[in-house]
Amino acid sequence: MRLSFISLLAGLALIVIGSFVASLVQSSGGTDVRDIRIPLEDGSELSAYLYVPENASEASPAPGILAVHGYINSRETQSSFAIEFARRGYVVLALDQSGHGYSTNTAFADGFGGPAGLQYLRSLPFVDPDQIGLEGHSMGGWTSLNAAMAMPDAYQSIALVGSSTGAPFAAPGTETFPRNLGVIFSTYDEFAQLMWSVERAADVKDGEKLQAAFGTEETIRAGDVYGSIEDGTARWLAQPVTTHPGDHLSFAATADALTWMDMTIGAPKAIAVDKQIWHFKEFGTFIALVGAVAFLIGLFAVLSAAFTPATAATSETDVREERLTSGLPFYIALVLGILIPALTFFPFTALGEQIPSFGIFRQNITNQIMAWAVGNAIIAGIGLAIARQFNLRISAAGIGAAAVSVLALYFVSVAVSDLLHVDFRFWVVALKPLGLHHWPIFLTYLLPFLLFFLLSHMAIRQLTAGMTSVKKQFGVTWLMSAGGITALIVVVYIGLFTMGRLPAFADPLFSIVGIQFIPILTITAIMAVVSLRTTRAVIPGALLSALFVTWYIVAGQATHV
Questions:
Q1: What is the mean pLDDT of residues 321-335?
Q2: Which residue, 253, 119, 120, 118, is CA-closest to 183?
Q3: Which end of the chain is least crowded, N or C, by CB within 10 Å?
Q4: CA distance 511 to 349
Q5: What's 147-165 look like in SS3?
């Protein structure tokens, strides 16, 4: 109980400290960060953070930057770029593209939100409409290009970070379109084939698609300016040494974007591109994320222990389960529990693409994750049926503790978001409040994920029954939960860093999504252990995990229907 109280109080302290640090960093130098909504003609709206530096006023308008995140991310993901642009005097509109974050329309609609975002930015009285830059990462680059296609004379330059001109979602790049093109494409980008039709990202400089945009048939020299900035035909390539999602944690990628905008527009404030502070904001939100997990688990443990009656540690069922999970059967079950989630990851998520929406399954990527979860739940159920081990044990106090704990953390996250304009995140792992349009979606996906955690935690209980060592119990639980996925992602990225491309079996998007599985499944492993040790039941930990994970996924994914 004492450790639970410490976790609860320490978690709350970390949330407060980390969130305040993050807020102070993003408003550095007097920048005013505003949470805004942009109404659209169909009645929906786009969401954005507007960064207004102190030098911007109606009397002295500042240049503007439209900054857009990539697929299945949100406006906060662009904070490294947005913070540094704002510090240098640019007004920055960090957009939630269509169907993402708090934008209430659907993904891919209305030019991804790019034209409306650019029009709004130009309409601001403290923005100079003749000095507008577009910056977008991945699909955010296509959002920017859609804005450029719709309003060809409304911007001065564009920086595509981990993105491309041409198919599948933009017009082909030529010597004149888009205006003043800066391409920042990392040497280990997972989407080299999709973006620039090359096998290895490091070889993009020799790709015909990029050369066509640069107006040359020769190897493109990174760092050289092709064409004329004054005429709007300038072309420039930078290749930071990182991955596609790594662009958001890259000082080099951020510096490259700053450099290009300074060359083509000119920053109002002279701050060297290597003088960056965004990482302190990232550190703050990471501390807040750790605090959020500690707060949630601590509160759950406190409530569970307070209201769950003490029971004997060696009931007849426990003794029988302990015997069943010893020796060779234990190790066979453990190995299968590690291997099966990893071996099914890419096949099951690919199968999930075929799930029809039925008007209720409205997030395509969540469907794919759900397919993996339900598939593994079925496999776990078959294993438990063979072993004749279906013992859920009802703990009303534990169930109530799970619901109250998640609700309490949710209210804390809303307060932090509303007051400080930050969320709980590190890199692409982010926990943020749901939008109003997310709640029906949340309820739709909750049951499939609850099924997954019920059966997987039941299997974990079967393997850890009788274990008195917390370390041993958590070790087995982590291996069953996240061990196989961790090994899979390590293999995938060893392949990327040694060959310069992903292994043939790996899907680029779900290789990146898989990175998130490691911390999230580690968190649910902790939840499983805490629940089993405090309530001696499966359902509370499974419900806690399902509520947390469904919230996490739905708030962070794109809405397609």
A1: 74
A2: 253
A3: N
A4: 11
A5: HHHHCCCCCCEEEEECCCC
